[in-house]
Amino acid sequence: MINNKPFLKWAGNKYRIMDRIQRLLPDGKRLIEPFVGSGAVFLNTDYDRYLLTDSNADLISLYQYLQTEGTDFIHYCKRFFNGKHNTSELYYKRREEFNKTSDLRKKAALFLYMNRHGYNGLCRYNSKGGFNVPFGRYKQPYFPAKEMLSFHAKSQQAEFRVAGFDHTITTARPGDVIYCDPPYYPLSASANFTAYSSGGFTKEQQMLLAELAEQSIRSGIPILISNHNTRFTLSVYRNATDVEKFPVRRFISCNGNKRGHAGELLALFA
Ligand SMILES: C[S@@+](CC[C@H](N)C(=O)[O-])C[C@H]1O[C@@H](n2cnc3c(N)ncnc32)[C@H](O)[C@@H]1O
């Protein structure tokens, strides 16, 4: 089994359930991930080629710099991980710089800096699109040099694009396999704790994704979808070929002591 950790902290990352995903993903030439996030699935599968997209342009830009520059970019990012940068004063200064700069290489490096120095590794923006996660107060943030090197090596098989999931899915061709990991459908009205870009992921978008999955199997392109196990998700995935349900242990609130079991599912359309 391949065992590569993503270099970014990412809410909802699928590293811990990779064994289940690997068992269910069909064979194919190219894996398409319309919600790539930290790339846990890309890093732990073995397809010839990958199309990796996400609506978060900051995330995709970081991947593109790492893909083309490799160690040069890793060294450049490392300068923001000297102890000097681990103060709230400098964090907020860098965050402001990130929100204003037109230097895209620096912006990509600062995105990684904030991912490791910001609160809980969250990625959250205000209504104007400004990154607004507070300082994280970690003793010594880890610089993921090893994980970035593995990502760089594997990314030579990949193409990264900024795109909405619906556009990405409609570009798929026979021979492709699609893995979809949308923002979770909330377990309760107040529990929607992920915000990867300004504007949330709506119920209508969850339904559109299920419709696109049904269309996709009619074109002979299999799709595997992850989500919470709720009455709503079971209903929208009712035409799936197979639905695997399982509990997952994880943080459910900002308070680290309150962990819990949230039911999840994997719906296969094949
Ligand atoms: C649960 S995360 C994916 C996690 C990923 N599988 C991993 O292992 O790290 C969901 C991702 O969907 C992206 N996203 C949200 N809305 C989207 C949309 N409309 N189209 C494409 N991507 C979207 C977010 O930026 C986020 O990276």
Task: Summarize the topology.
Elements: H1 18-24, E1 30-33, H2 40-43, E2 49-54, H3 57-69, H4 71-78, H5 88-100, H6 104-117, H7 145-154, E3 158-162, H8 165-170, E4 176-180, H9 203-218, E5 223-228, H10 231-236, E6 242-251, E7 259-269
Parallel strand pairs: 1-2, 1-4, 2-3, 4-5
Antiparallel strand pairs: 5-7, 6-7
Helix pairs in contact: 3-6, 3-7, 5-6
This protein binds S-adenosylmethionine.
S-adenosylmethionine (SAM) binds at residues 10, 12-14, 34-35, 37-38, 40-41, 54-56, 164-165, 181, 183, 196-197, 201.
What are the salient characteristics of this protein?
single chain, 270 residues, alpha/beta, Rossmann fold, Adenine-specific Methyltransferase, domain 2, 2 domains, seven-stranded mixed β-sheet, 10 helices, 7 strands, 36% helix, globular, binds S-adenosylmethionine
Describe the structure.
The protein is an alpha/beta fold and 270 residues long. It has two domains: 15-55 and 163-269, Vaccinia Virus protein VP39 (Rossmann fold, 3-Layer(aba) Sandwich), CATH 3.40.50; 65-146, Adenine-specific Methyltransferase, domain 2 (Orthogonal Bundle), CATH 1.10.1020. The chain is built from ten helices and seven strands. It has helices at 18-24, 40-43, 57-69, 71-78, 88-100, 104-117, 145-154, 165-170, 203-218, 231-236, and strands at 30-33, 49-54, 158-162, 176-180, 223-228, 242-251, 259-269. It has a seven-stranded mixed sheet with strand order 3-2-1-4-5-7-6. Helix 9 (203-218) links the parallel strand 4 and strand 5. Helix 3 crosses helix 6, helix 3 packs across helix 7 (145-154) and helix 5 (88-100) packs antiparallel against helix 6. The model is unreliable at 252-258 (pLDDT under 50). The structure holds S-adenosylmethionine. S-adenosylmethionine (SAM) is lined by residues 10, 12-14, 34-35, 37-38, 40-41, 54-56, 164-165, 181, 183, 196-197, 201.
